[in-house]
Fold each of these.
Amino acid sequence: MAQAQDLRQAITSVAGRPGPVLSAYLSVNAEIPENQGRVYLVRLRDAMNDEGVPGELQQRVRTYAEDETHPGARTLAIFADGDDLFEIYRLQVDVPESFRWGDPYVAPLTLVLDEYEPYGAAVLDAERFRYFVVSPLSSAHGDEEMKASGFREVDVHPSEPYPRGGGSTDLDPAGRKHQANIHSFYKELGELTRDVTFREGVRRLILAGPKERTAEFRRTLPNELQDRVVAEEHVDLGSPEGELLDRLEAVRERAEHEREKELLDEIRESGVRGLDVTVAALQEENRVYHLAALWELEAEIRWCDNEQLAIREITSEVCPFCGQKTRVRPLKDVLVDLAAARGARLDFMLGENENTDTLRDEFGGVAGLTRF
Ligand SMILES: [Zn+2]
């Protein structure tokens, strides 16, 4: 899973910087009207001025962004300082735009990593087989082409051409022979699918095509792949590619929504909720292994840099444990740091939907799944 690893390394290396660091999440998604005519370059310039980024660094960042006439991403994540840090990541995800000059701000990268698991889509009909992957970081390798929604196609070549014939289910000898051909062909495709799925780090697999084809293909899939299938979608491969990819993206979003809902259901059964209880369970009891937090969370919390601990009494200007001065930080940043230190997964949920309603209204914005 090279891409997730890259992102994890970026989070660790950037988060460890003493600062001041420029952390910018710039929306460059060409489909968003506000970005037409590359107006985001103006927003970037204004924001860096507002934040007081040194002129020389501003110039470097602006030169880079201006040269990227087609960023091929939805969001550019930029990390730069006056020293040797200058890293830019192309994210295939819409992340709320933000700019900061000061402490490194990696919460959105964590959001991307956790919210956006790599998906694979095996698309097949009577004559074709295609495999698409979508992951949070765009990186089209070699000849691969980055398509809409960040999907890229991976070449999969069966050793034999697709079995032609009537597709009859008659039990006459020719029909049986044909069925046997299809079966062995699907079996090979299934093995190829397994190999590419494992190689690409795909944990969630979509099957798409005419219903009878995907159903048969699913039956012949190797066992270790069966439980990675999250959706079977009836699509016509004859439709334009853009349409096909839009369908796949819609299926992916639905599956993600379902995954979040299951997480919240589990938390309801055996978890903790609310800021105070959740932070205590995470930080002091070390029993939270999966956190859910509302993206729109604006809360702040005190923090002791000396011990890397949240201080739950917001008025404590001095740390009750070590006596050093504390400071106030955005809760989202603190959750990222604590989750990283305690090895918990962190799902930020954004948008207006059933899941964010539950998280906000029922769980108080932050909740966690507990080990015991
Ligand atoms: Zn302390």
Amino acid sequence: MNPIFSRLVPRRSPALAVVVFLAALTFARAAEPPLKPLFPGLKPVCGCEDLAKVSLPNTTIDSATLDSNGWCRVNVTVTHPPAGDRIKIWIGLPVTNWNGRFQGNGGGGFSGGGASSIRGPVARGFASAATDTGHEGGSGSFALDANGRLNWQLIIDNAYLGIHDMTVAGQALTKAFYGKAPRYSYFVGGSTGGRQGLMEAQRFPNDYDGIVSACPAIQFHRFVPASLWPQVVMNTAQNFVPKAKLDAATASAIAACDTADGVKDGVIDDPWRCAWDPKELVGTKVGDSTFTEADADVIRKVWNGPRAQDGSFMWHGLERGADMSAYAGTGGTPLQGRPFSISMDYFKYFLAQDAKWDWTTMTPAGFELLWKQSVEQYGAIFGTDDADLTRFRDRGGKVIIYHGLADQLIPAAGTVDYYRAVQARMGGAEKTAQFARLFLAPGVDHGFRGAGATPTGLTEAIVNWVENGAAPEKLLAEKRGTNGKVTQTRPLFPFPDVAKYKGEGSTDDAANFVSRAPEK
Ligand SMILES: [Ca+2]
């Protein structure tokens, strides 16, 4: 397993480890044909070891050596005096066949990123970099210093500064090695990496020409605390709902809403139009237990998302069709809540500032208070919801955002909110589509797995848009069987348009679907 993602393994949820790992795998699997070299025949102007002598502000070159692949590997540490922070950066430079481009890579959860993520891009000819954003591993404990106080430097390093530092160092060393700056720079990431990409567009618009942002962890200060809501609901009701009942409700919702899009394929294309209510399961047997009205109430609240004491909206819940067992995890005998580890870390270290904080003492009112603290204290730092992308657009930046509609960790509704805010701020849908497009993928989860088809060709799409001015009119999504063979293709169209079955031909062939505006 990829070492960085293995550090993200939540303490008590093996299923989630698989999900996070699959996310890494999907990005690695996005192996696409090599890109046309922009400076054919160009050779490095110095030896790899010579890069150890490059001088950059507040930056130490820890090592510069050729690795077993013949790639020049440079390890760098950046700090921000007078703080004593240490941002580790891993840079890979192909000695031959550099394609003339730079690729920055994102992380996952609280992990800023990992050295292994540069392998794929370097193999495809990119100069590439990744960073730990100032702390090791996937725990949120870095937010507190040894005295239990908030470590603001490490928090902002993780929230936005580390990726910028990585980009500055990576591009500078690329230029030192080849004697030419990268002609184009791209950022690719999912989840936290998706958030990091959008943060670059918002705060450091000169860093990248093209950004691919998958299932972005934007609205971090809202959706992360919101992900503990199902546990608060179950704890308050003292009704911990077993996974079998959650899965029964998901299966029933899918069965009820599947065909609304015209194709019976186990996928709800538009979960926001699915209003199936779990009361319909009350009284039925699930395993050796009976589904109760109290169970229906919990599931309804998981789908609705957190509401304040006065009933007002706080945040989106999970979409119908998304696996509920990460947010509403349970275990033990008798059944107890098993909260999502990233959410728990955030409450402990960022909000309660107490590593021993006991979530089971929290009432819905207490949840609302901590939620409001989160919005107040971290919105400007972690929110990544600034809709003003003027500077990024004006220098020619392009961004592709995509999100699975059965995402069980980050509800896609938050990404839709952000994209709509960008449309409103940037002059409407048409003007926004000239530089920023959103693609929603029905039936796939946070790792882009599930009953639906997985978007492909993202690197090709962003490069084509940035370098050839060809905006992506659609993405091709693929589903593969266990033998790796493609069993289904579907088109994905830019939001808000959806893929509609023509009514004839195989529903497994993208050619039989057309772009349609969504039904009102
Ligand atoms: Ca369907």
